[in-house]
Amino acid sequence: MSGPGHAIEFVLRRAVPFGVPFKDMEAYRITTWHHGNLSRVHLTQIFPGIETVSVNLLNLYQRKIGLSADAGEVMTLCAIEKFMGARNVVEIGTYDGNTTLNLAANLPDDGRISTIDLPPNWDRKFLYEVPGNYWNVTDRNRIGIQYRGTPYEGKIRQVLGDSAGVDWSALNPPFDMVFIDGCHYRDYVKADTENAIKHIRPGGVIVWHDYGDLKDVSRVVDETAGRITIWAVRGTRLAVGWTGSSPLPTRRETN
């Protein structure tokens, strides 16, 4: 630092990022990730060797800021999927299908993903009573549009319904990986988490989006951490639950 004034300014801008909201709301959003009690851990410490995994990333610049996982989170999610050798994946919250497309693009030839979202003719009724400020229902006419007509559409099963009311046993469990990014209200996060734990294979992974960012998601994940091993991935809003017996996941090869 060239002087005390510059040093003080540097510290203050890191501690309280004044001015950021007016220049880049996306950058400011990151500074609000303050919920949850889990320590943040680098991805390579959770999955030793994952740095050698190559992923196929598609249409990242067609993602909706504020509605979707960001590009780095999609990359992380796909790397976990490939590292774990996942073949049978469930996603809760399709929206326009960008994350679905990327997960499908990184599955082996025999891999399949079932993705759940409310139908176009949804009657605006939830299985649980959801306060209005928790409604994150997107345009029903855009469900899955990004994966439709792509070479990966054959790997995708679109399930239309309320995730808490869907018969998960009909989705061909056990699952290798479940990605939870649907309704963020506490009752739904709990229901989705319970269904994931019930239907995941031993040694499978559950990934939650919006950990640290949203209070209800963070609370449910923290509570679940008393039952299975969960890490918060540093630099992301992803929390990863591990159902295996070893301390850390190991790479599972696919053909």
Poorly predicted runs: none
Number of strands: 8
- Spatially, the strands of the biggest sheet line up as 1-7-8-6-5-2-3-4
Helix count?
Answer: 8
Helix content: 25-40%
**From the helix content, strand content and strand pairing, which structural class follows?**
alpha/beta
Overall average residue pLDDT: 90
**Shape by Cα distribution:** globular
Overall radius of gyration: 19 Å
Q: Distance between the terminal alpha carbons, to the nearest Å?
A: 53 Å
User: How can the largest sheet be summarized?
Assistant: 8 strands, mixed
Strand content: 15-25%
Helix-strand pattern: HHHEHHEHEEEHEHEE
Short précis:
This protein is α/β, with parallel strands linked by helices. It has an 8-stranded mixed beta sheet with strand order 1-7-8-6-5-2-3-4, with helices on both faces. Helices cover 28% and strands 16% of the residues.
Structure description:
The termini are far apart. This protein has helices at 4-15, 20-23, 25-30, 43-46, 71-83, 98-105, 186-199, 215-224; strands spanning 40-41, 88-92, 112-117, 156-160, 175-180, 200-208, 229-233, 239-242. The chain has eight helices and eight strands.
Topology:
Blueprint: H1 4-15, H2 20-23, H3 25-30, E1 40-41, H4 43-46, H5 71-83, E2 88-92, H6 98-105, E3 112-117, E4 156-160, E5 175-180, H7 186-199, E6 200-208, H8 215-224, E7 229-233, E8 239-242
Parallel strand pairs: 1-7, 2-3, 2-5, 3-4, 5-6
Antiparallel strand pairs: 6-8, 7-8
Helix pairs in contact: 7-8
Features of the shown structure:
255 residues, alpha/beta, 8-stranded mixed sheet, 8 strands
